[in-house]
Amino acid sequence: MAIETYMAYADDDWASLDACVALLKETGHPMSKRTLGRLLTRRGVRTELRREGGSGRTRGASFSSVLELHRDWVDGQDRLN
């Protein structure tokens, strides 16, 4: 008997930089929006502008990439001095 498996996935995990900063604040290792932006640029992570609500355009990036970047930053591998 075949069983159909449901696998949920997100093909787009874009999150605004403001949302990323707010979520990272809850980890106990907060990161400023400026530091996040600098690390994204240094790592070559693509950011893009999107319309969000009616509030104009908001810059964001892949949340998975942000989490990896934050992990390395917390581990001290990529500190900005």
User: In one word, what is the shape?
Assistant: globular
Q: How much is the average pLDDT? A: 84
Please compute the radius of gyration using only Cα atoms: 16 Å
Helix content: 25-40%
**Number of strand elements:** 3
Distance between the termini: 60 Å
Per DSSP, the total helix count is 3
Structural class: alpha+beta
Order of helices and strands: EHHEEH
Low-confidence stretches: none
Beta-strand percentage range: 15-25%
**Mind summarizing the main beta sheet?**
3 strands, antiparallel
Sheet with the most strands: spatial strand order? 1-3-2
What does this structure look like?
The chain is an alpha+beta fold and 81 residues long. 40% of the residues lie in helices and 17% in strands. The protein has a three-stranded antiparallel sheet. The longest helix has 12 residues, at 63-74.
Please sum up the structure shown.
The chain is of the alpha+beta class.
List descriptors:
single chain; 81 residues; alpha+beta; three-stranded antiparallel β-sheet; 40% helix; globular
In terms of topology, how is this protein built?
Layout: E1 14-16, H1 17-25, H2 33-43, E2 47-51, E3 57-62, H3 63-74
Antiparallel strand pairs: 1-3, 2-3
